């Protein structure tokens, strides 16, 4: 079996990409993952999958909500949200800004990968405030993030 390692990472600076290629990766896809870019990159290394993908219509896309496997992954992600919410609340109540930034960073990536764009955007905003040590502005964005996570949890829909 031939392997074709592709770096999936938030490190998207030119020097980062060059480093990954130098150490043996065949390609690089930045996170949060753009589904079209991901499929295009993978298709370069899987010609058979590429020709099959051309035969399928858009509704059969790997990342479509019409795809049962992807729907299951989204369901499992949504089911993990109560734990994420609790970790956020615990870190904030303890004023553990480093932990809060880390959890926000994780949510930013995972939410973006599963199509929860608004959640990803707000988590990224919270992460940036924390990294900049702008703690006085955290409450508002934190509340927005919790609200969006609860909306995603209770609606089960990508927003």
- Portion in strands: 5-15%
Give the spatial strand order of the biggest sheet: 1-2
Overall geometric form: globular
| Strand elements, count | 2
CATH architecture of the largest domain: Up-down Bundle
Number of contiguous helices? 7
Task: Give the low-confidence spans.
Answer: 49-54, 56-60
- The level 1 CATH classification of the largest domain is Mainly Alpha
Task: Kindly state the percentage of residues in helix.
Answer: 55-70%
The end-to-end span amounts to: 39 Å
Report the mean per-residue pLDDT as an integer: 81
Structural class by SSE content: mainly alpha
For this structure, what is the CATH homologous superfamily of the largest domain?
HPT domain
Number of domains: 2
> Helix-strand pattern, N to C?
EHEHHHHHH
**Which fold name corresponds to the CATH topology of the largest domain?**
Four Helix Bundle (Hemerythrin (Met), subunit A)
Question: How many strands, what sense, and barrel or not for the largest sheet?
Answer: 2 strands, parallel
- CA-atom Rg in angstroms: 18 Å
